Model the fold of this input.
Amino acid sequence: MKQLLILLLCAFAYKGFAQSSADSSEVATTMNSFVDAFSNLKWDKFSAFFADDATAFFPPSARDPYRANNKQEILNIFRKVFDHAQQQNATNPHIVIEPLDLRIQLAGTTAIVTFTLKDPDLFGRRTIVLKKVDDRWLILHLHASGVALR
Done:
């Protein structure tokens, strides 16, 4: 009986690990797709990553210190970012986004993704909270901050 109990516990532990590994892989794929859509200014793909009830805090460069309280408010702010990037380089519009030190933490149907961004003047910090909805990971919260390097 004791051996059966140990065997069952191991099976459940393995199943939980396998699910976490699959979810972690799905979150990484989602983040790669999100960064690709953002970097290449693919508005329709980019905007589809946010849950309707998403919230966000933007970095100082956005000049909007308040919390965005839903998907539409978030997209209104990002629309300005996209428009600015397209005006800066009309022949090849894009934004350079290179996440560094990416970490994914899972808690059931919630994932917390953290990474940094580095440019000459600012050490960017990002936290993205995702929730799994109908086998799809959606951004529930985005927090962007930065520390001046000079």
